[in-house]
TrEMBL record:
<dbReference type="InterPro" id="IPR050523">
    <property type="entry name" value="AKR_Detox_Biosynth"/>
</dbReference>
<feature type="domain" description="NADP-dependent oxidoreductase">
    <location>
        <begin position="15"/>
        <end position="308"/>
    </location>
</feature>
<dbReference type="Pfam" id="PF00248">
    <property type="entry name" value="Aldo_ket_red"/>
</dbReference>
<dbReference type="GO" id="GO:0005829">
    <property type="term" value="C:cytosol"/>
</dbReference>
<dbReference type="GO" id="GO:0016491">
    <property type="term" value="F:oxidoreductase activity"/>
</dbReference>
<protein>
    <submittedName>
        <fullName>Aldo/keto reductase</fullName>
    </submittedName>
</protein>
<dbReference type="InterPro" id="IPR023210">
    <property type="entry name" value="NADP_OxRdtase_dom"/>
</dbReference>
<keyword id="KW-0560">Oxidoreductase</keyword>
<dbReference type="InterPro" id="IPR036812">
    <property type="entry name" value="NAD(P)_OxRdtase_dom_sf"/>
</dbReference>
Length: 339
């Protein structure tokens, strides 16, 4: 794999990120320790170094498996990302949320499970709409100054909150968010309204979760296969089926799988984007790794963009339509496009 810089940093990460939410067998599904080790081995042998986990994945088992694996590996080769926010115990009222107390507690617990002295990238997992963003940024910066975390990142948070946070961090001399993790795929393009433009402005790398839309873009629902969780049914409607059929058509043209097409689409959108590919089976990983050798043509990208297009809403559609209709900006947009 090739390596990319993560956001506005010098941190080099592989062009695919390995998602480890399925490491552990709690809940009756997932990969056991031996299979998880094999998946990480093969990912590293393919040049992969970017691992994504969270304190709550498999009730902490995901971090424990990674920690045991890394204790016998070159720790510095891997770029390890984890998250805090969601409740991982019931010991106290502050065992969840974005607050500093939970942040510090969660990080200490993650360090123990991961058997490491530092976390490369720490994500705020989901915005709690309670904690002030300056409390979050100051806490993350303190962890970075202590050497327990190298970089700060954020997930599942409104664009205006992230923008305020990075602007405040720049003003105060604190560490800024370098990556943004959101759901993004051909079936879920709503981040293009606010989140992705914001990420581009601040030079943040987007790390999409569910880039295959819970498997919908592989065509498994069209084949009559059932999803693991009922929530995946929201990705099974007439529109998603129409999009998936085009994905399958292009996959047939290229002689690859639909998953390769869907993943590569996120990587060819003109901004820094590293999709998170989960795997609970070695064969799944091997198939996902082939994505790096796929190249979508301009025509294929156009067909995918057209079939999955969304309305930007106000003010996005209004500004675009008004500029075209009235030439209000003196042809400025036309000149930018030509450049």
């Amino acid at each position: 794999m090739k390596y990319k810089l993560l956001g506005r940093s010098g941190l080099k990460v592989s062009e695919l990120c390995l998602g480890t939410m399925g490491f552990g067998t709690e809940g009756g599904w997932g990969a056991d320790k031996d299979i998880s080790f094999k998946i990480m081995d093969d990912f590293a042998n393919a040049g992969g170094n970017f691992l994504d986990t969270a304190n709550i994945y498999k009730l902490g088992t995901s971090e424990k498996i990674i920690g045991e694996y890394l204790s016998n590996q070159d720790r510095d080769y891997f770029v390890l990302a984890t998250k805090y926010t969601l409740k991982d115990n019931t010991t106290n009222p502050n065992a969840s949320g974005n607050n500093r107390k939970n942040m510090m507690r969660s990080v200490e617990e993650s360090l123990k499970r991961l058997k490491t002295d530092f976390i490369d990238v720490l994500y705020l997992h989901i915005w709690d709409d309670v904690t002030p963003i300056d409390e979050v940024l100051r806490g993350l910066d303190d962890l970075i100054r202590q050497g327990k975390v190298n970089y700060a990142a954020i997930s599942d948070t409104p664009a205006w909150v992230v923008a305020k946070g990075n602007t405040l961090a720049e003003l105060m001399g604190w560490s800024q968010f370098i990556a943004l993790q959101v759901e993004y795929s051909l079936i879920q393009r709503t981040p293009e309204r606010e989140l992705i433009p914001m990420a581009k402005h601040f030079g943040m790398t987007v790390t999409p979760w569910a880039p295959l839309a819970g498997g919908a873009l592989t065509g498994k629902y069209l084949r009559g296969e059932q999803g693991r969780i009922k929530a995946e049914s929201v990705r099974r409607d007439e529109n998603s089926e129409k999009i998936t059929k085009v994905v399958i058509e292009i996959a047939d043209e290229l002689g690859v799988t639909p998953a390769h097409v869907a993943l590569k689409w996120t990587m060819q959108q003109g901004f820094s984007c590293i999709p998170i590919v989960g795997a609970t089976k070695v064969e799944q990983l091997h198939d996902n790794l082939k994505t790096v050798d796929v190249k979508l043509s301009d025509d294929q990208l156009k067909r995918l963009d057209e079939v999955s297009a969304i309305k930007l809403g106000f003010p996005g559609d209004f500004l675009k339509e008004e500029a075209v209709r009235t030439n209000s900006f003196g042809g400025f947009y036309d000149r930018v496009e030509k450049r």
